[in-house]
Amino acid sequence: MTIPSATYRLQFRNGMTFDRAIALIPHLKSLSISHLYASPIFTATEGSTHGYDVTDANEIDPAIGGRAGFDRLTAALKQAGLGLILDIVPNHMAASVENTWWRDVLRHGRASAYAGHFDIDWSRKLTLPILGKPVAQALADGELRVVADEGGETSSLAYFDTHIPLSPQSTAHPGSTDAIEPLLTQQPWELLYWKEASENLSYRRFFEVTGLVGVCVEKPDVFQDSHRLILELVRSGAVQGLRIDHVDGLADPAGYLEQLRQAVGPQVHITVEKILGPSERIAPEWPVAGTTGYEFITALSHLFIDGQGIERLQADYQKADPVAADYGKGLREAKSRMVQRNFKGEVSRLVALAQSVVPGETDSELRTALHELLVAFPVYRTYGYRGGLGEQDRVILAQTVAKARTWLMGESALAVIERLILGDFHGNAAAEFRTRFQQLSGPVMAKALEDTLFYRYNRLIAANEVGGEPDHVEATAAGGIEAFHAAMRERLQTQPHGLTATSTHDTKRGEDARARLYALSERAEDWCLAVERWSQMNRDHVAQLPDGPAPEANIEWMLYQSLAGIWPVNFEQSALASLKDRFLAYTEKALREAKLRTDWAEPNEAYEQVVRAYAEWLVSPDNQGFVEDFDRVLQPFIAAGARNSLSQTLIKLTAPGVPDIYQGAEGVEDSLVDPDNRRTVDYAALAATHGGHSLAARKQELIRKGLALRARHRALFDEGDYRPIDVTGPGRDHVLAFARVHGEEQVLTIVPRLTAAAAGRHEGDALDIWKDTALVMPDSMSGPWQDLQSGRSFAPGSVKVSDLLQGQDVGLLVSPSLAVESQH
C-alpha cells in the first residue's frame, strides 16, 4: 500500500481551482507534504461551495477547471514528486434536475434506466418536497405552470426557477391552471410541501438533506456506473489514494470497500470517514488504512482537558442551567426528537417492514421499541448485511437492547427487532429492515449529538467536537497521560496508517481555537468568576421575552467561550469589526442548531434578534469596559492555548498515523463551524509569518521540521513502535513523552500539558515545575540525543525537562544516526 508521509487537505470551489492549487505546490513542498488531499472534484450543482452534491460522478467539474485543469494539476504534482488523494461520495448524489440520472427518473419514473440507481421506494410515487406551501395552495396561487423544454420536444412543470420534467405520457402543454392539477396525477412523482419531508419521503436522503438522494452503490452495475471515472483516474496513476465520504450511510460498507479494493488494487491508500464511538474499533476485515482521524482529536481533548477543572466548570454550569447541564438527559431528549419528529417517516417504514415479517406485533409497540433502541445506541451503527453480525457488533447490540429494555413495559417487540438486526429472519422485508435500521441509527446519532446537543451543552465547548465524548471527559482526563498512551498503542495496532487530523472541513472549531479553550478547564475558577462578572456587566442587554430571558445563561456560556476561541492575540479595537461578522453568523447557526427556542424550520425572529444584539454588543467599541476586561482575563488562556497548540501539533507529526494538515492550519486555525472553516485561506499572509515569533510562525516551523523528518525516515514512522516514556519529578503530570522506534532509529517527542493549571498549583511561574522533572530513559534508548529544533545535544542517560524546554515550546529529539543526518 502507498502510505503518505503527510497529507494536505484543500477545499476546492470558493475560488480554489486546479490552477490555483498548482501555484501552491511549492508551499506544500516546503512543508514536506507527500500528498494533496482534495475535496470532491466531480461536477456538482451550480454554485456548490463544497462538492458533496454531485450531479455527474463521471465528469470533473468545469467550475474548478474541468479535466484539462485536473490534468495540469496532476502533471504538476507528479513533477514535484507529490501524490493525490481524492474525496469521493458513494452514498448520495444531488436530487437535482442538473443530475441527468435524476432528471431521467423524474421523466420516466420506474421505467427509467436509472430508477434502480437511487434508493427509492417504488411502491408509491416519488415524492418531491420542494414546495414552500401545501400543493393545493401553490396551485391556487398560480405558482405552477407548464413550460416547453429547450428544443420544444418535451415539457416541464415550472415552480419558480425549478423545472421538473413531465412524463412523455402527459397531456401536452395544458393551457390553463385548472389543467395542471389533473396533469400532476399523470406523473411518476408527487409534489410535497417541504415541511412534510420528515414524515412522507419516498427516497433515502443524506441525514435530513432532501436535496441529496441515496445511491444504491451496493449493486454492481451502479458501482460501475458511478465509479467509472474514479477507477480510470486511479488506474492511470493520477490518483494514489481515496477518502470515502460517509461510509456508514451505505447499505453494505464492508461489501462496498471490498469491491472498491478489488477494483483499485492493493497499493491505493483508502481511508473512510467513520466516527468511532467509545471503545469502538474499526472493523478489522475492512480493506482500508483507517479512518480520517476524528478519534485522534478526541484523544487529544482528553489529554489537554483538566479533570479537576471540569468538576468546577460542571458545578458552576449546573447552577447557571441545571437542565442544560444534565448531559445524559440532554442526549436522550435530542435523540428522541430525531426519532419522533425529524426521522418519523423512516421509523414508520421500519414499523411497516417489521409488521410484514411478524404480523402479530402492533404498530405502537414496534414504534416504541424502535424508539428506545435507537435512543440507546452508543455507536453510529452495526454492520450486518447478508451474514451475521461480527463479534463487536453482537456485543454492542446486546448491551443496547439491555439498556432499551429498562425503558419498556413489554419485551416482545424489542425481541423481534433484535432478531431482525441479528439476521434471524429471512426474506426481502427482513433484509430491508436490517439494512434500513443500520442506515438510520447513524443519522439519528449524528443529528442528535453533533448537530443538536453539541449546541445545547455548553459546559466546555472545546469537548463538543465531531467524534467527541463530552460525557467521557472526566474519566479520561483523570487518566490523562496513561489514557493517551493506551489510545496510541491501540491506534498502532488497529490503524497505523489512518489519518491523524486536528482540523477538518467538518470540525466544529479550528484546532487552535480548541487548544485555547481546553485551557479554560485548567483555570476554571478564574473563568467562572469572569463569566459571572461579564454577565453582570452586560445584563442591561438581556431582553425579557414572554418565554424567558434572552440570551439565557446557557447561551451566555456559549457566547463567551466562542468569542474566547477567536479573540486576537494582540488585541486592537480595529479587530472588533473583523470579528463581528464571523461571531454573529456563528451565533445564529448555534441557536438554530440547538433547536430550543428557534430552529432552521421555524426561526424565532424575536428571540434571534435580541440574542444577536447581545452578541453584537460584546464586540462593540462602545462596550469598552467589557472588552478591556475580557482581553485581560484571556491573556493566560491565550498563552496556555499557544502551548497546547504546539504540543498537539508535534504529537500529530510523530504519533501513529498519517498527519493531515487542513488548509491554512499550518498557521493559526481559529475558525468556527462551517462555512467559517471553509473560507479562503490568505496564503500571502501565511507566508509573511514565516521566520517570526508568532504562534503561526512557530507552528509552521515545527511542521516543516517534523514533516521533513518523517519524509526522510519513512520506515520509522510507517512501521516503528510506539513507546511511552516515564517521567519523574513534580512536573510528571504536565509532560507527555513517547518514542517512535525502528531498529536504531529513534525519535523522542516531549510536550508540556496543563501548564496553565500548573501555574495555579505551584509557586512561581508555570515553568518552575520542570525543576527536578526528568524523563526516565530505558537502557535501549540511552542516547545521546539531539534536539531537532535547537540543535542542542543531550548526553546519555536521563533527560531533564528543564534543560530540554529551556527557551522552547516542545522537544523533538533524535538518536545519533538521525542526528548526524540532520546536520547535513
Automatic annotation (TrEMBL):
Its EC number is 5.4.99.15. Keywords: Isomerase. GO terms for biological process: alpha-glucan catabolic process; trehalose biosynthetic process. PANTHER family: ALPHA-AMYLASE FAMILY MEMBER (PTHR10357), MALTOOLIGOSYL TREHALOSE SYNTHASE-RELATED (PTHR10357:SF216). Residues 12-690 form the Glycosyl hydrolase family 13 catalytic domain. InterPro entries: GH (IPR017853), GH13_cat_dom (IPR006047), Maltooligo_trehalose_synth_4 (IPR013797), Trehalose_TreY (IPR012767). It comes from Allorhizobium taibaishanense. This is (1->4)-alpha-D-glucan 1-alpha-D-glucosylmutase. It comes from the Bacteria. One of its GO terms (molecular function) is (1,4)-alpha-D-glucan 1-alpha-D-glucosylmutase activity. Pfam families: Alpha-amylase.
